[in-house]
Structure formats: C-alpha cells, structure tokens
C-alpha cells in the first residue's frame, strides 16, 4: 500500500465538540427566558448564533469568544426589552460559556481503533485543529493523542486556507498523496480543495452553521464523503489499491 499523508481535524471529527456548545446555548436560553417574558427559545438561539458567527469571523476560534458572544447576546436583549444590565447576570452568562471548555474530552466511538489501523496501514498522521493552544492541548493530552500524531500537531486560532498552507509548507508532502479529513466544509474541505490536495468530508451529526458552505470549486484531487470515521481505513485501502501512485 502506498503511504498516504493524512491531515486530520480534531473537533467533531475525532472527538465530540458541538454538543457541548449546543447544551450551553440551551442553558443560556432557559436563563434568559426567566429574565425576559417575550423572546422565544428560537429567537434567543438565532440571535446568539448571529452574534457568535460575527465574533468568530473577527476574532477566530479562541475559547474566550463563545462566552463573550453569550454576554453580547444578553446585552442585546437587555437593550431590546429595556432591562438593566447587571454584572452578576453577566457573570452567570459568561460561566455558562466557559463551562464548555471545562468538559472532559470525549472521543468518537472507535476513534482509537481507527487511528491504530491507519498507523498499521503505514499512513503518516498529522493533526490540524482550530482553537487556542491551551484548550486544544488540554483535550489532546486528556485523550493521549500525541503518540498518534508524532509527525506533527498544528493548532491555529484561525483555521482556513492560509493556515492549512502553512501546514503543507511545513510537512512538504506530495499533494497527490495528501488528504485533509474533517467535518467542516468551511475550515477543512474548502481549504483543501483550494490548495489542490485530496479531501474527505465526514459530516457531523449536528453541525455548527459556521462550518456549512457551498463547495463551488472543482477539486484537482479526490473529494469523498464518508458517513463515519469508522469507514476511513477501508476507504483508503481501496483508494490506494485502485489509484496507486508510482
């Protein structure tokens, strides 16, 4: 089998992530509904997502962004319904957001088995994840992922084409045998296609709207979509068999 270079995403590709944010949004909505009689759950969630996306676009994926987006949403409804902004209420809101980054990292089913098999098959594994170094390193350490990605772990607060290019320049791999594997069309798949490497999209069961974009570029390499991480080793075996690069 021809060795492939696999650049793998972390959050919602190898481990659970979005569900913690969703739980925090629901807790935040319940809190605000107790303070304001008028807004519905849907209105609160929609406004928070709108503010959160703007904050991420401007500030990146640092763990401070989500709690602050909840606070900004609280401010919005205070202004809209003429309620006084209280420091103690801000603190309660901010703690809901901060709690997301205190959750113990939880791997997807068969994550270790899949990574073991990929290494056994001779592939070279790199990790390319978005967020701040402190939080992402915490999760990587908790799950003992360093041995799987001894070739390189890359953490960026901005995860896009520019940062993926930095990874490619660092690892100097052959584009024909290099893959980006992740759940996000925006931060994993689109950058890979723009840079001419192969890409495998593994959609998350519940996806953050930030990650959803239309792919309107014709791939130079292979672009595939798998239903689950568990399918990855077999897919790559079949690909290598039928598309051997000499």
Concise account of the structure shown:
By secondary structure, this protein is an alpha/beta fold.
Mean pLDDT: 91
Tally the beta strands: 6
Integer tally of domains: 2
SSE arrangement, N to C = EHHHHHEHEHEHEEH
CATH H level, superfamily name of the largest domain: HAD superfamily/HAD-like
Widest beta sheet: strand line-up: 3-2-1-4-5-6
Helix content range: 40-55%
| CATH topology assignment of the largest domain | Rossmann fold
What's the CATH architecture name of the largest domain? 3-Layer(aba) Sandwich
Work out the strand percent.
5-15%
Low-pLDDT residue spans = none
Shape: elongated
Distance between the termini: 11 Å
CATH C-level label of the largest domain = Alpha Beta
Biggest beta sheet summary: 6 strands, parallel
Question: What radius of gyration results from the CA coordinates?
Answer: 20 Å
Number of helices: 9
Structural class: alpha/beta
Task: Please characterize this protein's 3D structure.
The protein is elongated and about 65 Å long. With 246 residues, the protein is α/β, with parallel strands linked by helices. It has a six-stranded parallel β-sheet with strand order 3-2-1-4-5-6, sandwiched between helices. The longest helix is centred in the N-terminal third of the chain and has 19 residues, at 41-59. 48% of the residues lie in helices and 11% in strands. α1 packs antiparallel against α4 (87-99), α3 (65-80) packs antiparallel against α4 and α7 packs across α8 (185-194). The protein folds into two domains: 5-16 and 106-242, Rossmann fold, CATH 3.40.50; 18-102, Orthogonal Bundle (DNA polymerase, domain 1).
């Amino acid at each position: 089998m021809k060795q492939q270079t696999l650049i793998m995403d972390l959050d919602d590709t190898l481990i659970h992530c979005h569900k913690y944010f969703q739980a925090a949004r629901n807790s935040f909505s319940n809190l605000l509904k107790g303070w304001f009689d008028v807004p519905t759950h849907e209105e609160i969630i929609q406004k928070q997502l709108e503010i959160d996306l703007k904050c991420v676009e401007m500030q990146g994926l640092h763990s401070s962004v989500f709690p602050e987006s909840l606070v900004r949403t609280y401010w919005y409804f205070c202004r809209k319904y003429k309620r006084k902004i209280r420091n103690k209420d801000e603190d309660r809101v901010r703690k809901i957001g901060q709690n997301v980054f205190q959750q113990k990292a939880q791997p997807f089913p068969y994550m270790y088995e899949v990574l073991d098999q990929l290494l056994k098959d001779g592939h070279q594994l790199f990790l390319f994840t978005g967020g701040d170094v402190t939080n992402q390193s915490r999760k990587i350490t908790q799950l003992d992922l360093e041995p799987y990605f001894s070739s390189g772990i890359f953490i960026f607060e901005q995860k896009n084409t520019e940062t993926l290019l930095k990874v490619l320049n660092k690892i100097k791999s052959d584009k024909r045998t290099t893959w980006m594997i992740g759940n996000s069309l925006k931060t994993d798949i689109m950058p890979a296609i723009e840079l001419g490497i192969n890409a495998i999209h593994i959609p998350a069961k519940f996806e953050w709207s930030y990650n959803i974009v239309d792919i309107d570029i014709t791939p130079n390499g292979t672009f595939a979509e798998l239903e689950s991480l568990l399918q990855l080793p077999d897919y790559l075996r079949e690909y290598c068999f039928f598309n051997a690069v000499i």
